[in-house]
Amino acid sequence: MKEILCVLLVLAAAASLCRAADEPPKLDPIKRVTIGPNRQFRVNGKPFLPIMVWLQSEKRIPQIKASAMNTICAQSTKLSAKDYLDTLARSDLYAVMTLGTDVAVARHSHLLGWIQGDEPDMPRKHQDGTFGARSPESAVAEPYRKIKQADPSRPVMMNFTAYFMKSKTGKFDAAAKRRIYPAYVQHCDVIGFDTYPIYGSGMPKNLCDLADGVTELRAIAGPRKPVYAWIETSKGSKWMTYEKQLDVLPIHTRSEVWMALIRGASAIGYFTHAWRPSYTQFRPEGEMVKELHRLNTQLTRLAPAILAEPAKVKVAMTMAGKLNCHQKATQHDGSLWIFAQNLDLGPGAEKLGQFQQISPRAGKAVFTVAGLKAGTKIEVFDEDRSITAGNGKFTDEFPPLREHVYKVRM
Questions:
Q1: Over the stretch 74-108, which tens digit does the pLDDT of each residue have?
Q2: For 329, what's the count of Cα atoms within 13 Å in the CB-facing half-sphere?
Q3: Class of domain 24-306
């Protein structure tokens, strides 16, 4: 009987350890927030990857925690700023508060930063038929000056639409973009954008806008300012007939997150609101919440490597059949880390119309790594497998829209 009891106790302890490993570590009270040399957030001197959710009430905390997010960006609450922050602190969440909030909460233990009014660049049509941004530069310059004067200890964020992108030609011409966006960027410390290919426009063929948007926004932001992207998580937008809308699947959300991070985003955010068939601040459920928890927990563990300095060795990735792909390589803890993704959307994807689903393809990738010795064992992170390298090269198979993370002891 004693032997059986011992076995049960061991199994219970093991189960407890497994549950603990599946949960992100507890957030430390914030003493200082800085921006590191790799455009990364640093909380108390350590790299931190904000995994945000947009505009939430404290009533949604259970769903947010179930999805392993760590920060609420912009508040929707009847509580005072201090009471809201205290509530988030008790729930082990950070907050990014809206400018205009009582600055008496500056230096709160769970205040990560501030954010300007949303989408100041939203196009507004003039009487002559041309478009301009809805907020003049002065509308973001003065709030930025005031908050930095009152609280220089926290970064100020700003969120754009996707109209800065080269592919978005319907509102601002190139000259207008050069005039609008660099001016705005002067009045924030961190810059982000939102684009929702499926939720917002029913166009899965535009999935890679996430990748292109991060690349282009980094160029506008300059070499020091972090960039972030908002990611879709459901259908239910108010801009399209609900019955025609396509489902946003876990693989879509997962792929968009990795697109953003591989292109150099230093934070991500999830847009979870839906208006149809009824309004809610948090629509993800079932398999989507399950995937969000898995993905966000993994990203939290990988954050020091994702946010580390660029690798000093040259790394290149190609895929058979010239499938679209990309990779990012960093060096951390004595290892080379490669974050790689299959971006193929399928043959003829660019010709698809609204509400037409893509058919992304699987493929084989070849990685060329300078100085990689034949026989080197390459760990495939979180996949319980390894690859043996050839001389300067290794290969791997990629399912559609999927990523792999490699750890190489050089």
A1: 999 999 999 999 999 999 999 999 987 777 899 99
A2: 16
A3: alpha beta
